[in-house]
Amino acid sequence: MTERSLTLPIDEAAVRELRVSDILFLTGRVFTARDEAHRAMLEAHERGEGLPFVPEEMALFHCGPIVRSNGDVWKVIAAGPTTSDRMEIFEDRLLEAFAPRILVGKGGMGDRTLTALKKVGAVYAHYTGGAGALAARQIERVEDVHWLEKLGMPEAVWILEVREFGPLLVTMDSRGESLYKVLESTFAENMRAILARIEG
């Protein structure tokens, strides 16, 4: 386990040095994207249209923030992670199209995403659920928002400047390692032992 403070953007070579169980603190820009934002990004890509932001330069945060406006200034009130598995149907294609190097969410993702992380050179990092107020304190400012009128506040893409955003635990890395698979195996072994004692 290694603790790392990273400044975004981060290149592929640096990401491929990250390993499962590393703890990250991010400084730089992240963008939020839930289901509808993933869909909008991929549809734009399929039409050959550019995006109004550059995903590769930022971390992708599975989050639907609560944001308050004060005139022309936005302030994030809470920014807890969304369950990432909701994005599994999109994530491999989004990674291959836009190559964000760090994904942040909660609950982990599946085999399609794990394969894409290995192919593209990216990692998935877990942020503790229920810590939306803590996350908000680590956001220095809202730089921009895209597709707000089209998608609404939680589904819009928010560009956020963060400082020492974390702690984030790398749970899926670019070597194809997944902490979730280790936990599944351990759980299965424990269940077999419990059943053996019950039946014995």
Key descriptive features of the protein:
200 residues; alpha/beta; fumarase; 5-stranded mixed beta barrel; 7 helices; 30% strand
Can you characterise this structure?
- The chain is of the alpha/beta class.
- Helix content is 34%, strand content 30%.
- The chain has a five-stranded mixed barrel with strand order 2-3-6-7-9.
- A hairpin with a 2-residue loop joins β4 and β5 (73-78).
- α3 (88-98) runs parallel beside α4 (111-120).
- The radius of gyration is 18 Å and the shape is globular.
- The model has no long low-confidence stretch (mean pLDDT 92).
Provide a quick synopsis of the model.
With 200 residues, the chain is α/β, with parallel strands linked by helices. The chain has helices at residues 12-15, 35-46, 88-98, 111-120, 132-137, 148-151, 179-199, and strands at 3-7, 23-32, 59-61, 66-70, 73-78, 102-105, 123-126, 139-146, 157-172.
Mean pLDDT: 92
* CATH architecture call: Alpha-Beta Barrel
CATH superfamily: Fe-S hydro-lyase, tartrate dehydratase beta-type, catalytic domain
Provide the β-strand percentage band: 25-35%
CATH topology: fumarase
Characterize the main sheet. Answer: 5 strands, mixed, barrel
The assigned structural class equals alpha/beta
Count, helices:
7
**Main sheet strand line-up:** 2-3-6-7-9
Q: What characteristic shape results from the CA principal axes?
A: globular
Furnish the topology, listing elements before pairings:
Layout: E1 3-7, H1 12-15, E2 23-32, H2 35-46, E3 59-61, E4 66-70, E5 73-78, H3 88-98, E6 102-105, H4 111-120, E7 123-126, H5 132-137, E8 139-146, H6 148-151, E9 157-172, H7 179-199
Parallel strand pairs: 1-2, 2-3, 3-6, 6-7
Antiparallel strand pairs: 2-9, 4-5, 7-9, 8-9
Helix pairs in contact: 2-3, 3-4
